[in-house]
Amino acid sequence: MAGSTSLIAEKTFGVTIEKLNKSFDGVPVLKDISLEVKPGEIFVIMGPSGSGKSVLLRHVAGLEVPTSGSVHIGDFNPADPATRQQIHLALVFQAGALFNSLSVYDNLALYPREHRLGNEAQIRDRVMHALQILSLEKAVAQYPAELSGGMKKRVAIARALVMEPQLLLYDEPTSELDPVMSATIIEIIAALREHTAVTTIVVSHDRTLAMSIADRIAIIMDGRIRAIGGVADFEHPANPAIANFLNPTIDLKNPRFKQLENDHE
């Protein structure tokens, strides 16, 4: 690849969330959320299923509007369409969200083509460089239906890189992956931050991911932030609910297991 090709944004942005509340049909989902993500850090938001972590990420991406409170990327409101002209934000969706009718190459080329970010030769350099970073050169002509789950995740990350993001968001990047591929995705996220210094927010329930790559971690439960801190702060958490979430124990003597046993007799 040409040495001049770069996918590194010149500037990164922090994120500030203040007293954010979100309700759907009168049911509160996010409750008085306040946190700050520093420029250039990897910030992991963890929580059990249904805790509101993906809804929170959608607010940062500008896909949801707060019921009350505010979200800012730098000085910009992500829900304002004009913000997209000021900030390069990329969201790696949980399922990849690739276009099934397009090849891997065309999935990556779609954004620079639509935004006229160079001629076709320049776009090809940009796309192939992203594929090279993710070791996907051989998949360039394949279609999403021909890819494994892990490869789809890597293509989705490569597509995000083509946008030269200043803020990179991941929604459950290791979900539905085997342990080996999960480890690969974790390594990729860490390596990308080292090479691009992009501000990275990851929503995940994956303890291994969080403890491996996070600069800081926030735990969200029942729509509220229960704790924020560095990795060391969560190695032996004092809060029983957080401790059980990060290091769950299984009690085979629990009455519910006995009931399941009786149901199958």
Tell me what the structure shows.
This protein starts with 14 loop residues before the first strand and ends with a helix. Helix 5 links the parallel strand 6 and strand 7. The longest helix has 18 residues. With 265 residues, the chain is of the alpha/beta class. The protein is globular. The chain folds into two domains: 174 residues, Rossmann fold, CATH 3.40.50; 55 residues, no CATH class. Helix 2 crosses helix 3 and helix 2 runs parallel beside helix 4. The chain contains eight helices and nine strands. The model has no long low-confidence stretch (mean pLDDT 88). The strands form two sheets. The protein has a six-stranded mixed β-sheet, with helices on both faces.
What sequence of helices (H) and strands (E) makes up the elements? EEEHEEHHHEHEHEEHH
Beta percentage is: 15-25%
CATH topology of the largest domain: Rossmann fold
Give the helix proportion (percent range): 25-40%
The major β-sheet equals: 6 strands, mixed
Tell me, briefly, the overall form. Answer: globular
Q: Total number of β-strand segments?
A: 9
Q: Write down the domain tally.
A: 2
The first-level CATH class of the largest domain is given as Alpha Beta
* DSSP helical segment count: 8
Structural class: alpha/beta
Q: First CA to last CA: what distance?
A: 64 Å
Uncertain runs are none
State the strand order across the main sheet: 5-6-7-3-8-9
Please summarize what this structure is.
With 265 residues, this protein is α/β, with parallel strands linked by helices.
